[in-house]
């Protein structure tokens, strides 16, 4: 790709490139709506290549293509993770069935061969898709494409889009920068880098609060993502606070929409509503928001329950440690200790004078008797 400012494309070539890219972007967006994520990735990647060649890699004209390319790669990574998770779950179920059903061994073997064949075909298709995706990534990154995951490439594209948008001063670019921060935060959630996710979401919120109305749904989405990040990071109070803020924004939006419906329906009677009627659109949005609210309230209940369980566990652990510590104290610690200055039990007591005199007389008498006996024997 050409470096910024060195593109030799003529104005005509740039216009043609822009038209081609617009078509690719539109097709890619349609693919995303239809759930055809790999096709969307290919369309956005080609749009990035065309625009970067015509305008330069860091030109503002490339920002939108970079953003959608990154977003589609994030969706693709999530899709692949989901497919892998389902495959592993199915494999575990097959093992359990094989262990439990010994009587139907022959049937199990027959079924196993069929499953294996199907799994082999699926694996081959998956390998082909991965190889195709690696080739797609290789078209954008020339160095070691096999070492770059979809999440990593998504992060790089969204980071580049964010940097370009932040250079612009118009409201639309600022909000796209905020959206780039939001998607970068989602990538950090996927990789369990919760501190970075919180940082990205907070930057997103900062821009949105400066540019949007207090009841804008984008604010509610960012508060919700902050609630998720705090919850994963074991910050339960902060998580609950963010979920409540999301609910507050949505309730304000519902109130505003209901007023729009009331004002719009006055004096109209029962006239049929057109498909693009603003009142009908407001009613549908109210319905959508009211369906989302129970889910967020459920998140708050989950956080409160988890916080309660953690507090109980801490209390039990504290009591257990205290009990163990008391059992480990020496048994003699409960017995009275002798004063260090009392050494009477270590010193031999001095005999009284009368005891010493009596003992001496006894010894003298014994000696005299002994000498008398000796004289008699000698005679």
From TrEMBL:
<keyword id="KW-0802">TPR repeat</keyword>
<dbReference type="InterPro" id="IPR051730">
    <property type="entry name" value="NASP-like"/>
</dbReference>
<feature type="compositionally biased region" description="Basic and acidic residues">
    <location>
        <begin position="329"/>
        <end position="340"/>
    </location>
</feature>
<dbReference type="GO" id="GO:0005654">
    <property type="term" value="C:nucleoplasm"/>
</dbReference>
<dbReference type="GO" id="GO:0034080">
    <property type="term" value="P:CENP-A containing chromatin assembly"/>
</dbReference>
<protein>
    <recommendedName>
        <fullName>Nuclear autoantigenic sperm protein</fullName>
    </recommendedName>
</protein>
<feature type="compositionally biased region" description="Basic and acidic residues">
    <location>
        <begin position="352"/>
        <end position="379"/>
    </location>
</feature>
<keyword id="KW-0539">Nucleus</keyword>
<feature type="compositionally biased region" description="Acidic residues">
    <location>
        <begin position="91"/>
        <end position="137"/>
    </location>
</feature>
<feature type="region of interest" description="Disordered">
    <location>
        <begin position="88"/>
        <end position="146"/>
    </location>
</feature>
<keyword id="KW-0677">Repeat</keyword>
<dbReference type="GO" id="GO:0042393">
    <property type="term" value="F:histone binding"/>
</dbReference>
<feature type="repeat" description="TPR">
    <location>
        <begin position="178"/>
        <end position="211"/>
    </location>
</feature>
<dbReference type="Pfam" id="PF13424">
    <property type="entry name" value="TPR_12"/>
</dbReference>
<feature type="compositionally biased region" description="Basic and acidic residues">
    <location>
        <begin position="268"/>
        <end position="279"/>
    </location>
</feature>
<comment type="similarity">
    <text>Belongs to the NASP family.</text>
</comment>
<feature type="repeat" description="TPR">
    <location>
        <begin position="220"/>
        <end position="253"/>
    </location>
</feature>
<feature type="region of interest" description="Disordered">
    <location>
        <begin position="326"/>
        <end position="379"/>
    </location>
</feature>
<dbReference type="GO" id="GO:0006335">
    <property type="term" value="P:DNA replication-dependent chromatin assembly"/>
</dbReference>
<dbReference type="InterPro" id="IPR019734">
    <property type="entry name" value="TPR_rpt"/>
</dbReference>
<dbReference type="InterPro" id="IPR011990">
    <property type="entry name" value="TPR-like_helical_dom_sf"/>
</dbReference>
<feature type="region of interest" description="Disordered">
    <location>
        <begin position="260"/>
        <end position="279"/>
    </location>
</feature>
């Amino acid at each position: 790709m050409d470096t910024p400012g060195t593109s030799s494309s003529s104005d005509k070539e740039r216009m043609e490139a822009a038209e081609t890219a617009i078509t690719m972007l539109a097709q890619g967006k349609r693919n995303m709506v239809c759930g055809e994520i790999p096709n969307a990735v290919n369309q956005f990647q080609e749009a990035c290549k065309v625009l970067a060649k015509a305008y330069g890699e860091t030109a503002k004209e490339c920002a939108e293509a970079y953003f959608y390319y990154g977003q589609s790669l994030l969706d693709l990574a999530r899709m692949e993770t989901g497919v892998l998770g389902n495959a592993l779950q199915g494999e575990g179920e097959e093992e359990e069935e094989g262990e439990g059903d010994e009587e139907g061994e022959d049937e199990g073997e027959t079924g196993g061969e069929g499953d294996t064949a199907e799994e082999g075909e699926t694996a081959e298709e998956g390998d082909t898709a991965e190889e195709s995706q690696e080739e797609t990534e290789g078209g954008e990154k020339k160095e070691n494409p096999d070492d770059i995951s979809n999440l990593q490439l998504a992060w790089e594209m969204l980071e580049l889009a964010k940097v370009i948008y932040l250079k612009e001063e118009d409201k639309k670019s600022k909000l796209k920068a905020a959206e780039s921060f939001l998607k970068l935060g989602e990538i950090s959630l996927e990789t369990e880098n919760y501190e970075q996710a919180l940082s990205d979401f907070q930057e997103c919120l900062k821009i949105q609060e400066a540019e949007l109305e207090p009841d804008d749904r984008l604010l509610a989405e960012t508060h919700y993502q902050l609630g998720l990040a705090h919850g994963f990071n074991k910050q339960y109070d902060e998580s609950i606070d963010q979920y409540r803020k999301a609910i507050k924004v949505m309730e304000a939006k519902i109130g505003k929409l209901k007023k729009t419906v009331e004002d719009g329906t006055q004096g109209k009677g029962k006239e049929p509503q057109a498909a693009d009627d603003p009142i009908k659109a407001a009613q549908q949005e109210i319905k959508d928001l009211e369906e989302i609210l129970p889910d967020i309230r459920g998140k708050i209940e989950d956080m409160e329950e988890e916080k309660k369980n953690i507090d109980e566990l801490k209390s039990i652990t504290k009591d257990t440690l205290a009990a163990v510590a008391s059992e480990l104290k020496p048994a003699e610690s409960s017995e009275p200790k002798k004063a260090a200055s009392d050494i009477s039990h270590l010193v031999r007591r001095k005999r009284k004078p009368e005891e010493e005199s009596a003992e001496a007389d006894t010894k003298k008498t014994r000696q005299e008797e002994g000498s008398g006996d000796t004289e008699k024997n000698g005679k």
